[in-house]
Write a structure and sequence with these properties.
Layout lengths: L7 E7 L6 H14 L4 E7 H4 L6 H17 L8 E4 L4 H11 L4 H5 L2 H11 L3 H5 L1 H10 L8 H4 L1 H11 L4 E2 L6 H18 L8 E2 L32 H9 L16 H13 L2 H12 L5 H27 L2 H30 L5
Parallel strand pairs: 1-2, 2-3, 4-5
Helix pairs in contact: 3-15, 4-10, 4-16, 10-11, 12-15, 13-15
The chain binds tryptophan.
The site of tryptophan has 13 residues, from strand 1 and helix 10.
């Protein structure tokens, strides 16, 4: 198959902090595994990060961190197109154009918008369910509680990221599926309104394997930036060991073959991701016959996680020290991304009657 016949995979990550084990097993490691088989495009969504008004210096630092972490985890810039969203100005122009075909109502009904707007307004979950009250608050809010228009149009921007590259396979988390559905709707709407066939419809891409759920260390739920239960790829060994040793457990099995509580099952899930099968079997047997000591399990787990993260952390440090290398990769990446984006944008402008004399 020739280079440009490969299916286009595209995914973005918001520039909000370092990558954790959940990002690694849930996405990054899979990106690395498929980089030969697809036309892969990965980018840092710095414009999306602006919707929460981050500190400018922090935003810039985050972009650099994530690029270094992507490279350190094994993405090969010769094989994948790696870029920063704002380095492709065509995205911003098409965002303006596409917004002309997006309803405020459909944006306001998006779960992610309701969630974030509710938090900005300081409303309880129940209050936000009362649509009339929610809308009243939304329209009346200003100053500190203002909900910015960028947050409302977040799905338009995400749709443009995808459509401008004509990507069809988009690996995203569950929380992004609604945005993907909107993207398909916007694509169909645009094509049919102008009688064109510019946009293919994108679908979620799970790489064919079973989904990997990486739990946090706090006993329940998955690892997430906002949960404060993360192991970061760049955590130094002392910090990492301490986090693991402090992970929530229970009082231990009282009878042979007791069912496992969620905190313990979560530790086993992490062990399964990072350890060898015989280590996992050893601790499972120890749990079953009640001889397990959670301290031993945690010590082993911390070392096995470190075996995964240490080489990555060391490469991150090397890459971070080489600004010129990062700049070169991003220049190459954005050049490739812009080529396709410019082509699509031109088609869109033509379709809409925005033509040069
Ligand atoms: N909204 C995505 C998230 O928060 C990030 C993102 C932005 C994205 N643009 C995208 C993901 C395009 C996939 C494709 O996770």
């Amino acid at each position: 198959m020739s280079e440009n016949k490969k299916e286009i995979v595209l995914s973005g990550i918001r520039a909000t902090g370092n990558l954790h084990l959940g990002n690694y097993y849930g996405a990054l490691r899979k990106f690395v595994a498929v980089q030969d088989d697809y036309d892969c495009n990965f980018f840092i969504a710095d414009l999306h990060a602006l919707t929460t008004n981050p500190d400018p210096a922090q935003l810039h630092a985050n972009v650099k961190n994530i690029i270094a972490e992507y490279l350190a985890a094994g993405l090969d810039p010769e094989k994948v197109t790696l870029f920063v969203q704002s380095d492709v100005p065509e995205v911003s122009e098409m965002y303006l154009l596409l917004n002309m075909h997006v309803g405020i109502g459909e944006l306001m009904r998006t779960v992610s918008f309701k969630d974030k707007a509710r938090k900005a307004l300081g409303l309880s979950a129940e209050a936000a369910e009362d649509d009339a009250a929610f809308e009243h608050q939304l329209v009346g809010a200003d100053n500190g509680k203002r909900v910015n228009a960028g947050l409302l149009t977040y799905p338009t921007l995400m749709a443009v990221d995808i459509l401008i590259q004509k990507a069809t396979k988009v690996p995203v988390g569950k929380d992004q599926l609604q945005h993907l559905e909107l993207t398909r709707r916007f694509a169909r709407r645009f094509n049919s309104f102008y009688g064109v066939d510019i946009f293919p419809e994108p679908y979620d891409f799970d790489f064919g394997g079973a989904p990997v759920k990486v739990p946090g260390l706090d006993g329940s739920g998955k690892m997430g930036k906002s949960e404060g239960n993360c192991i970061y790829l760049v955590d130094d060994p002392k910090v990492l060991r301490k986090k693991v040793m402090r992970a929530v457990t229970d009082e231990g099995p009282k009878e042979p073959n007791s069912p496992m509580s969620e905190p313990i099952a979560n530790l086993f899930t992490l062990l399964e991701l990072t350890s060898t099968p015989d280590v996992v079997a050893h601790f499972r047997e120890a749990y079953a016959d009640c001889s397990i000591r959670y301290g031993d399990l945690k010590k082993q787990l911390a070392e096995d996680i470190l075996a995964v993260t240490t080489p990555i952390r060391e490469r991150v440090n090397d890459i971070m020290a080489d600004e010129a290398y990062i700049a070169r990769i991003l220049r190459d990446g954005s050049e490739r991304a812009r080529e396709r984006a410019a082509h699509t944008l031109e088609e869109v402008r033509q379709a809409m009657g925005i033509r040069r004399f």
